[in-house]
Structure formats: C-alpha cells, structure tokens
Amino acid sequence: MEYLLLIYSNEKDFAVMPQAEHERVTGAYMAYTQALLDGGVLRGGNRLRPTSATTTVRAAGGKMQTVDGPFAETREQLGGYYLIDVPDLDAALSWAGRCPGTQYGSIEVRPIWAM
Questions:
Q1: For residue range 39-81, what is the model confidence (pLDDT) as tens digits?
Q2: What's the 3-state SS for the chain?
Q3: Could you give the domains of the chain?
Q4: I want to staple 108 with a disulfide (CB 3.0 to 4.6 A). Which of 6, 12, 23, 41 is the partner?
Q5: How far is C-alpha 8 from the chain's CA centre?
Q6: What integer is the mean pLDDT of 79-105?
C-alpha cells in the first residue's frame, strides 16, 4: 500500500540555521533517502520551495482566484514529502519515525487513495 509521508517544520528555523547544522540535517536526509531506497520502499519524494514561492488557487463563484503564499498561516509548513510503498500502516509509521523531520516538526502519514 502506498503512503505519503508529509514533512512539516518551521521553515523560518531552517532559514537561520547555522551552516554546520544545515549540513548535518542535509546529510541525515540523504542517509534516510538511501535507507528508503535500500529498503525497496521509495516511490518518490522531493523537497519543496519555501511558502514564499507558493501560489494558492481557488474557484469562488465560478471565477478562478490566485493568492500568493499558502492559504493558512501555521507554525509548521509543508517542506517536502516521500511516497513509499509498504505492506501496512505499521510499516509506514516505522519509516516515518525514522525521518529526520521528526526532530524539527512532524511527519503526517497519509494513505494514498488509488483512483
């Protein structure tokens, strides 16, 4: 079954992070990505640009509207994701618990609803 691991953290914290810490975190994500590959569960994933590069689209009254930035102000922003294919939720939670993002925010584990 496929699950999306959505990585949330405060992007402002990363913007002011010392270079050495940034390199440590990047290395941790590279190791985690390699572990997902070695485990044969990784189907995809990417880091996302900051919310300042986001555009939100809505259709109100039949008319499309666009707004710069995310729709809601939150303390944590979606910063990236991994798409994994594992046998069950327990396996997905196990992989999510190993993600370096748990040290800086949260990992939302969401099953994919195949269409």
A1: 999 999 999 998 888 888 888 888 998 888 766 667 888 999 9
A2: CEEEEEEEECHHHHHCCCHHHHHHHHHHHHHHHHHHHHCCCEEEEEECCCHHHCEEEEEECCEEEEEECCCCCCCCEEEEEEEEECCCHHHHHHHHHHCHHHHCEEEEEEECCCC
A3: 2-111 (3.30.70.1060)
A4: 6
A5: 6
A6: 96
